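This part of the workshop introduces the protein records we will be handling. The structure tokens are whole numbers drawn from a learned vocabulary of backbone shapes. The record below serves as our worked example for the rest of this section.

===
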Amino acid sequence: MKPHKVSKRNVFYAAIATAAEYYDFTLFAYVAIYISHNFFPSSDPTIAMLSAFGMFASGYIMRPLGGIILGNMGDKYGRKYVLKIAMFLMMLSVLIIAFVPTTSSIGITAVILMVLARMIQGFSIGGEYNGVLALLVEQAPRYKRASITSWGTFIEGNGVLLSTIVVFLCTYYFTSEQMYDFGWRIPYYVGFALVVFAFLCILRLKESEEFKEAQQCNKLEKVPVLTALKEYPLQIMQVFFLAGYLGIAYYMAAAFIPSFLVDHHFFNENDAMLITMIAAVFYAYSAPFWGRLSDKIGRKPMLLGSSFLLGLLCYPLFMLLTLGSLFWAGFAYCIFMLLIAAGTATFVTAINELFPTHLRFSGVATGYNVSNAIFGGTTPLVAGGLIALTAWDFAPSIYLIIASIVVILVVLTMKETN
């Protein structure tokens, strides 16, 4: 392959698409407490919250299907082709969530429409994020791959950060009653405008030069996903375990903890969103640093170090989160997100380096999205269920400790890809 210049315009367009996707996809977790009230009315707030987290998990049911179908199409017809489909589907899903009536108005139909919207979102993001990562990897010089691909984590983090800012502003300016009534919908109106702009950006995106070269050399497969499963099963399993682990860590921090802090009366909605917003800044803006460090010292040291520290520190970090002190909760949350960013910024490059160009999208998307469906999307539900089952606020940390031990063993089996 000939070396290609990094297209700043392509990076920008891909950035907008990923930011829009992750803004809209993770937004659900930040307004889950209001959705549970409107769509799952119950005298027990824990049951209502678990129902909302179950709806959150429904988005992940479709991620494997989206990853397999869109990943296969991405290796066959191109990265841009898939990104256009993914952004259109995200527009449709956000529109449904923004305007669907509540259960008190249309009964069970409201729940069905919300689940449908979440499933469309899951199918969409199953192809979008991996397509953007493939584009970034295929533009980068080998010695700067993590430095450039870690911008995918930075971009994703900024989409999540924007969602926390919008929800924070809503909780600041609206009363609690107004948030439960109509305020939770306003971030979705913002999200719809953002995803429309992202779709227009994708229309101007240029196809990956590496993919075009593979196409011209007749290297493309008729059914790329089947070839990837046949020729790279070990690599797909490595992606599966790494993605599952980081899915558990990330969604425990970004999706479960904000609602946990409010639901268990440690903080009010506004304070919880404030520390979530600050932690999201640490996650997003540390990613490029971790990417550069990964290019210098290698993928395995970064993955092993971040996994070890997360496993070691998650229990004391949970203790700090539950002290009732805004400072110590914010400190613990930021450390949590810094360690997750270190792993993720390295992971997004390492998994793409495991596959050749003509199978990259399919191989990564299959392992990544199946794992996220099983582990990532269910994490808030599992974490909440562990607390309900044990009556112990620190129970979710044990889940993460076990996951850390497993992924360290997996990383030790991997070859260094840098």
About this structure: The chain is about 85% helix and 0% strand. The mean pLDDT is 88. The CA atoms of residues 279 and 334 lie 4 Å apart.
